[in-house]
Amino acid sequence: MAYYPKNKIQQNLQTNGDEYKTIINYNNGIDTFYIGAYYKLYNGKTYTGRFPGDGKNEEIIPVSDSDTLPIPESSLATTNVPPLFPTPKDYELGVFTRYFKKKRNEYLFEELTKDQYDNVDNILYIRFQIQWQLTGDKTATFNTNRNMILLAEQKNNVYGFNEYLQMDYLKYYK
Fold first, then answer.
1. Sign of torsion over alpha carbons 131, 83, 165, 99
2. S-S: 50 plus which of 10, 37, 166, 169, CB 3.0-4.6 Å?
3. For residues 2-10, average pLDDT
4. Domain-by-domain residue ranges, the chain?
5. Closest CA to 111 of 83, 91, 87
């Protein structure tokens, strides 16, 4: 898990269910409101849990922002939305490219779209990409994705990347 200084986090916040939705459920075509504790980072992103490391820490978004998210893959037609989540075509191929950046002088990672990745300031950030396995044997997929993460950490000198992804090697697996 990435380290954030305490002055960069608003901790122990609470929502009653009319403010936030989980991105994961939105991407799966489920319209679910989030109820419970959450925390907010300096960059405006919000996550479940009272603080980083409290549970799984899934990203949540304000209800008003859910209208601007990419259309869930279950209802994707042809759109011009840059993929941050795998598309049906990616699942046919069995892999998709994930794009990231890490601030050079801090352990702050962020996942990006292809367009965002192409416009990263290389002076402030290290940018890198990985091929993410989506389908196949579950154990082989787990090992492949774990190895891709470990290789990316070594090759790009971005240690802590594995913790940033919360060691979720089967994310998006089908």
1. positive
2. 37
3. 76
4. 6-67, 81-164
5. 83
Residue with the larger pLDDT of the pair 130 and 4: 130
Instruction: For residue 158, give the nearest of 137, 124, 128 by alpha carbon.
Output: 128
pLDDT digits (tens, 9 = 90+) for 105-149: 888 899 998 888 999 988 899 999 999 999 999 999 999 999 999
Residue 154's pLDDT band (boundaries 50, 70, 90)? Answer: very high
For 24-30, the CB contacts below 8 A with 24+ separation are 24/58, 24/59, 26/61, 26/66, 26/69, 26/72, 27/69, 27/70, 27/72, 27/73, 27/85, 28/72, 28/73, 28/74, 29/72, 29/73, 29/74, 29/75
**Cα–Cα distance for residue pair 100/126, rounded to 1 Å:** 8
Going across the sheet that includes 109-112, the strands are: 109-112, 95-103, 125-133
Are 149 and 165 spatial neighbours (Cβ–Cβ below 8 Å)? yes
